Amino acid sequence: METRDACGGEDCHFCRIADHQTDTEILLSDDELLCFRDTKPGATHHYLVVPRTHIDNCTRLQGDDVSLVERMVEMGWSILKKNKISDLEDVRMGFHVPPFSSVPHLHLHALAPASEMSFASLRRYGPQSHWFITVDKVLSQLKTRGKVN
Q1: What is the DSSP string of 58-109?
Q2: What are the catalytic residues?
Q3: How many independent structural domains does the chain possess?
Q4: How far apart are CA 41 and CA 66, in angstroms?
Q5: Residues facing 110 on adjacent strands
Q6: What is the pTM of this model?
Q7: Which DSSP helix (H) or strand (E) runs through 44?
Q8: Distance in angstroms (rounded) separating the CA atoms of residues 103 and 14
Q9: Rounded to an integer, what distance in angstroms lies between the CA atom of residue 80 and that of residue 111?
């Protein structure tokens, strides 16, 4: 069942981060989103962008979530630029597809430089990974079908 609640669930680690119940350093935030470093980075720069509203994962996104995903991507670009990523073509952004989501709360991965990711990281976040769906594909599916498969 889809969950779309204000964060605060005690069982959701990302909701606890959004509610400032952990010591996680928030790098960027606004009323809707927050951004912090991934604790198990797959690249030199690996950030997570998380909505404050609890959405289980990318398969729960619907057509009216296009603007949410676009704002998540904007925050992803903002944190990369803030950290002086100069080659914006060498970036991977996307979501893990269930059952490969480590935390059951929607989160966008922003990774750079993609060209320097290890073999193990490429298996999880690379172009050939069946575990990872890029934002371009998510947005395309939302705009054409209204849902992410």
Answers
A1: GGG-BGGGHHHHHHHHHHHHHHHHHTT---TTS-EEEEEPTTS-SSSS--EE
A2: 107
A3: 1
A4: 26
A5: 47, 93
A6: 0.92
A7: none
A8: 8
A9: 8
On whether residue 149 sits in a domain, the answer given is no
CATH code assigned at 58: 3.30.428.10
pLDDT over threshold 50, residue 2: no
Q: Is residue 52 part of a domain?
A: yes
Residue 71 lies in a domain: yes
- Quote the CA–CA distance of 4 and 24 in Å, as a whole number: 23
CA distances (Å), origin 141, targets 25, 46, 138, 148: 33, 25, 5, 6
What's the pLDDT tens digit per position in 12-50? 999 999 999 999 999 999 999 999 999 999 999 999 999
Tell me how long the chain is: 149
Which residues touch 23 (CB under 8 Å, ≥6 apart)?
none
Q: How far apart are CA 21 and CA 65, in angstroms?
A: 27
Range of the domain at 34: 4-144
- Burial tier of 106 (Cβ tally within 10 Å: 0-12, 13-18, 19+): buried
